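Rotation project, supervised by the postdoc (A.L.). Task for the rotation student: set up a whole-complex structure prediction and record inputs and outputs verbatim in this book. Inputs entered:
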Amino acid sequence: MNTILKHSTRFILLVLFQIFIFNKINLFEFVNPQVYVIFIILLPFGLSHARVMLLSFILGLSLDFFDDTGGMHAAACVFVAYIRPILLRFAFGISYELNTLKFNQTPVSQRLSYIGLVILTHHFVLYLLEYFNFERMLDILEKTIYSSVLTFLFIILITLIFKSKKT
Amino acid sequence: MQQIINFLISYKNTLLFLLLFCISLIFTIESHSYHKSKIVSSANWLTGGIYNALSGVDQYFRLKKDNKLLVEENLDLRKQLLEAQTILKERGSVQLNISDSVYELSSGRVVANRYNHLDNYLLVNKGEKDSIQVDLGVITQKGIVGIVEQTAQNHSRVISILNSQIAVNVKLKKSNHFGTLTWNGENPQIIQVEDIPRLADVKKGDTITTEGRSLIFPPNLPVGKVVSFELEPGKNYYTINVQLFNDMTNLNYVYFINNKQKGDLQNLE
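Outputs recorded:
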């Protein structure tokens, strides 16, 4: 019960922060960090795959409602949730398969590569669907890279701030 | 039968993924087609209400700037009124009568402004309750903003001119050559005008205004001024970059324009 409450609060706070703070950064007038992805990153590793996908879908769809983006956030979130086990296996190797993983106890380099991979995949799908046109691949890649860097910095910052609480 | 169930169970995650992904894709494709009723939209009581409540904070910090804008606008209107009155006096008989006007104006406030996507929408805090309808033009005192695309009880969603799907009829002010307004998604201050024929004598600094044929916007509303233009060899039309008079990144109060004759004129067509 406690964890459900914790994750629901996190969900609501992240959506609100995304809409009212991070979406207003508009660096260079088009770069916004999509910090809410941290919700998918931090979902318990033991949670069933189906639940991860459902929660990610709801998260993405809430953002779509606020941001008037159709289903782009939802699609990007569901996609990243679907391949999350692959990314986890890639980043953490055998310790993921042994089910002994705790996010804050993993080696820093592995943790960073996991966060980076999730962000890059998510952002790429998101901006691909936004432009919806392969001819504009350069714009898509540019936006993906700039936003990913910004998101990455914010997410690292957030994990550092909340680290001491042993969540 | 057993095999089918086994198959479903062993692939249940992939099937769930495909289902959710397809739903999202349908919403996405829907959002890429203009003039289709949309399920996912911020114009509903929940998201609209949250935006409304939190934009109040924003509002407080803008008071000074908004006052200045309003004074400027008042000044501008006073000047025009004086001018109009002098002209009317010179001619003698004619009286200004507001109720005769073809256009009806009402005001609203932008509670969610976006300009970082390729297809941007604004959320305005007026809706069906305030008799806002689909396809009304939205402007500020400086220029055009967009077109109402969807209405809810208390909110309406406006398709911004910073949207790759919008196409507004515009013209060169000095020569009346007309073209189409589009946006390439790069700079929220610069918008593109296409289809102006090569015969037109385009120069830097020329003013672009609305053309007024679509019934959404009245003619001669300011849009922006030409900053650069291009005429590719072998092509008959210019591609013009236009600097908007409006700062689309900083919108607050807007006006809805309703053409009262729209219904009649559409029936004639």
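Student's summary: Helices of chain B lie at 2-10, 12-31, 45-91, 262-268.
Supervisor addendum: Chain B touches chain A at residues 12-14, 16-17, 20-21, 23-32, 38, 40-42, 44, 46-47, 50-51, 54, 112, 114-119, 121, 123, 157, 185-188, 249 (CB under 8 Å).
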